[in-house]
Each structure stands twice: as structure tokens, then as C-alpha cells.
């Protein structure tokens, strides 16, 4: 549960007016009225279906911790003004409707207030569902069932909750409907229940557009799984494959059905990893495997004709059998280099948005996190992934006009390069120092170095 202490500490980031707004949250929570502190000034932000590079808040974020640390983290986020995404239940938010018509938006209000205070383009993921919508008891929250989908007879109730959320935060204009089709897998038919998901999606879409025609809505938020090339074609899609493997047909089927039967959409959204669904293999290696992100982006745009959002992307294969590996097994230099190449693939293929899943923890060790934990006295300081994300968002927003670059590296080594007229990004994909010539400059690149060159 979230403590009142955390709310008082967060007031240091918002200032006096923010503190007053937070104190008033409990008065608005019972009715589902407006919340989340002060609204941004009118005209401050032009809504765009292509908001670019941002991140998703998870269980721990910059709204709780020591006063000094939350202030530093808030200043960091204010300097970047990236899109920020928050789920309406779970991942840092409490059950928003514990009983029919009884609302508790306190935790979600805090996250929205954080997004507003730091100048973000706010995004909300409409997931998960209160327990009474999925066979549970009213006024009780069983967090072990967070990933259960609402029962079909409650699809309308969930859509009405989405409408209440949109009405409560009128400045939020970007909405993702559900997350990874959680709870929609049909074990009997060995496929996703894309019919049920699309029915839910259409009800939510209609409700959000009823609240404001300017609301931007996307789905189906399916995981774009893939497997290695194989002789056995079962579950492999014949329409998308590459050196990295072959798209899972079940994922492709979701996209096709949703696209054919949706009542409308402003963008298509997926997530995925550069490693295989089974065995977690990066083929042919961790850098080359990221070409999958570009291939899937182009395929989605050709199928749907819509801007493509990546709600999550992953490059570090998980550890096996509790052994060191995955996020905890790579050096930070290695991690940043692979992420940089993945972002290059997404940008070059025309992705409209990509949200980094920020794995914040409360302790000292936090691989891949954007800032040092705000629960530590020296917390809130920028970490390497935040530097990469912020610089990339600044240099290569959606719509960037990329140009070819003359780039060579010493024999037996590889580098990756992306450039427009203002900046060049160079990544050494080797675990040793490499000498390269890029855009006429001779560079000595440290192992896994990510280097920016201003034009």
C-alpha cells in the first residue's frame, strides 16, 4: 500500500499549489470527479499521435522517497519532458473502482500529478480490471489476479470506468487499451481470444471518443512473439520472418482480426523482445536480433496503415534457473549499446512512439533504471539509460529525416550508425576498442561505446 508519508514527500516536487491539490484528492476520490492536481495551461502541448520516445512508470517511481531524491528525479523528468505512461490499476496504482460506482483514484492522481508537474505528454494504459469485474468480491483486491481479464458481462462496466478516467484527467489524450491481452489466452484453442479482446476494445474506444473526439486510442497491445527459423512451421507466420526468426502466427492473427473488426483506432500498439519466445535466444546475436523491431514496425504499418507504437521493448534475455543473466548479467555499457541499436532500428523504420519499461527498484542495485532510487539519500540522479533516452528523443524525434553516412570500421569489427542533418549516433557493438571512420572523422571507440557527434 502507498503511504501518506510518500504523498507529503512528493509535495516538495509540486510546490505549494501542488501540495494543496494533493490534500484535496480524498474529497474528489469518492465521486470520480476531476483529479490529479493542476491541469497544464491551455495550448501548452499539441496532441500528436506520434509523441516519440518516453517511458512507463512501474511500481516504484519518482513520486515516493526522500524529499531531496524526489526533487532531483522531478527536475530530471522536467528537463526531458518525455511522454510518460501509467496503468490505471497496478504498476503503482491502486484499484480505481473497488465497488461499482465507488472510486479510489488517490494513487493514480499522484502519478498523473507527477506527469503534469514534469511537463510530460501523459499516456494512460487502461489495464487492469477491478476484482468485481472478473469474478472477485466487491471492496476486495486480490493482486495475484491483476492479469485476469474482465468477464464479458462486465465489458461495459470496464468501458464506463475508462470513460470516468478520461473525464477525470481531461488533459490526457493518449490511451492504450489493455496490456498484452492479459487474461485473453484461450488454452483450449491454443490461441488468443482476439474476438473477446476486440469486443472490449470497441466498447472502450466508443466511450473514450464519446468523452472527447480528440482522445487518441490504440490497440491491440499484443506481444509480437517470435521463434527461431524451423522446419516445423507450426505457429510460425509465413508473412514475416528474418535472420532473427519468424513471427508467431498467433500474434499476427490478433493484429489481423483486430484491424478488420475494430470500430476505429488512431494508432496500432504492440510490444516485444529481440529474443525468441522459447529459449530466449538472440539470433544471430544480441545486436543483429534488434532488426526484428524494424521489420515488425514496417509490417504493422503495411497491414493497418496506422502509426505504430511500441508500448514496451526488451533486449536482455531473462536469466535461467536463478543464475546470473539477463538484466542483471550485462554490464551497463553493454546494455546501453544494445538498447541504442534497438532504438536506431525503431527510429529508422518510422515508429511513432516507443515507451521504455522503467524497472525502478527501491535498493541500490537497479540495472537499466532511469534514475537512482528515490528511496536512497543520494537518489533521483540520472542513470545511463535516461541519458540515452533523453538524448535520442531530442535528436531523433518521429519524422526525422535520416541521411546515409559513410562509415567503416577495422576488419572483423562492426559499428552501427544513424544520422540526420544535426547529429550522428555511433555504437561500437564489439567488446573491445575499435577504430572507425564516420562522416570523415576518425574515432577510437571504447568497448560498447555509444557516441554522439554534432554536425
From TrEMBL:
<dbReference type="InterPro" id="IPR017853">
    <property type="entry name" value="GH"/>
</dbReference>
<keyword id="KW-0732">Signal</keyword>
<dbReference type="GO" id="GO:0004553">
    <property type="term" value="F:hydrolase activity, hydrolyzing O-glycosyl compounds"/>
</dbReference>
<protein>
    <submittedName>
        <fullName>Xylan 1,4-beta-xylosidase</fullName>
    </submittedName>
</protein>
<feature type="region of interest" description="Disordered">
    <location>
        <begin position="34"/>
        <end position="66"/>
    </location>
</feature>
<feature type="signal peptide">
    <location>
        <begin position="1"/>
        <end position="23"/>
    </location>
</feature>
<dbReference type="InterPro" id="IPR051923">
    <property type="entry name" value="Glycosyl_Hydrolase_39"/>
</dbReference>
Amino acid at each position: 500500500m502507498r503511504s501518506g508519508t510518500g504523498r507529503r514527500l512528493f509535495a516538495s516536487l509540486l510546490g505549494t499549489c501542488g501540495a494543496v491539490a494533493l490534500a484535496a484528492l480524498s474529497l474528489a476520490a469518492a465521486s470520480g470527479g476531476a483529479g490529479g492536481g493542476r491541469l497544464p495551461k491551455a495550448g501548452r502541448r499539441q496532441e500528436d499521435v506520434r509523441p516519440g520516445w518516453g517511458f512507463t512508470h512501474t511500481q516504484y517511481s519518482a513520486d515516493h522517497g526522500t524529499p531531496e531524491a524526489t526533487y532531483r528525479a522531478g527536475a530530471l523528468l522536467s528537463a526531458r519532458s518525455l511522454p510518460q505512461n501509467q496503468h490505471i490499476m497496478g504498476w503503482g496504482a491502486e484499484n480505481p473502482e473497488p465497488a461499482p460506482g465507488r472510486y479510489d483514484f488517490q494513487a493514480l492522481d499522484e502519478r498523473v500529478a507527477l506527469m503534469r508537474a514534469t511537463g510530460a505528454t501523459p499516456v494512460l494504459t487502461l489495464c487492469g480490471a477491478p476484482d468485481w469485474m472478473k469474478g472477485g468480491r466487491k471492496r476486495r483486491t486480490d493482486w495475484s489476479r491483476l492479469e485476469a481479464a474482465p468477464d464479458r458481462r462486465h465489458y461495459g462496466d470496464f468501458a464506463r470506468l475508462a470513460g470516468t478516467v478520461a473525464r477525470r484527467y481531461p488533459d490526457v489524450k493518449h490511451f492504450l487499451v489493455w496490456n498484452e491481452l492479459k487474461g485473453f489466452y484461450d488454452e483450449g484453442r491454443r490461441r488468443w481470444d482476439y474476438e473477446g479482446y476486440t469486443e472490449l476494445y470497441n466498447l472502450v474506444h466508443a466511450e473514450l471518443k464519446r468523452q472527447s473526439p480528440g482522445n487518441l486510442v490504440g490497440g491491440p497491445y499484443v506481444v509480437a512473439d517470435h521463434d527461431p527459423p524451423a522446419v516445423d512451421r507450426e505457429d510460425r507466420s509465413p508473412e514475416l520472418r528474418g535472420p532473427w526468426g519468424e513471427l508467431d502466427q498467433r500474434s499476427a492473427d490478433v493484429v489481423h482480426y483486430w484491424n478488420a473488426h475494430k470500430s476505429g483506432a488512431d494508432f496500432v500498439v504492440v510490444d516485444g523482445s529481440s529474443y525468441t519466445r522459447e529459449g530466449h535466444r538472440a539470433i544471430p546475436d544480441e545486436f543483429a536480433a534488434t532488426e526484428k523491431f524494424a521489420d515488425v514496425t514496417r509490417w504493422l504499418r503495411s497491414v493497418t496503415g496506422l502509426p505504430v507504437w511500441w508500448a514496451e521493448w526488451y533486449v536482455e534475455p531473462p536469466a535461467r534457473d536463478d543464475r546470473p543473466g539477463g538484466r542483471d548479467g550485462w554490464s551497463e555499457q553493454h546494455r546501453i549499446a544494445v538498447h541504442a541499436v534497438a532504438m536506431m532500428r525503431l527510429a529508422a523504420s518510422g515508429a511513432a512512439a516507443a515507451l521504455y519499461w522503467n524497472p525502478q527498484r527501491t535498493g541500490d542495485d537497479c540495472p537499466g533504471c532511469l534514475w537512482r532510487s528515490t528511496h536512497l539519500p543520494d537518489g533521483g540522479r540520472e542513470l545511463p539509460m535516461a541519458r540515452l533516452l533523453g538524448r535520442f528523443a531530442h535528436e531523433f524525434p518521429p519524422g526525422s529525416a535520416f541521411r546515409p553516412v559513410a562509415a567503416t570500421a577495422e576488419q572483423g569489427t562492426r559499428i552501427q550508425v544513424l544520422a540526420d542533418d544535426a547529429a550522428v549516433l555511433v555504437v561500437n557493438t564489439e567488446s573491445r576498442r575499435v577504430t572507425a571512420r564516420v562522416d570523415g572523422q576518425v574515432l577510437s571507440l571504447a568497448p560498447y561505446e555509444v557516441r554522439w557527434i554534432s554536425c
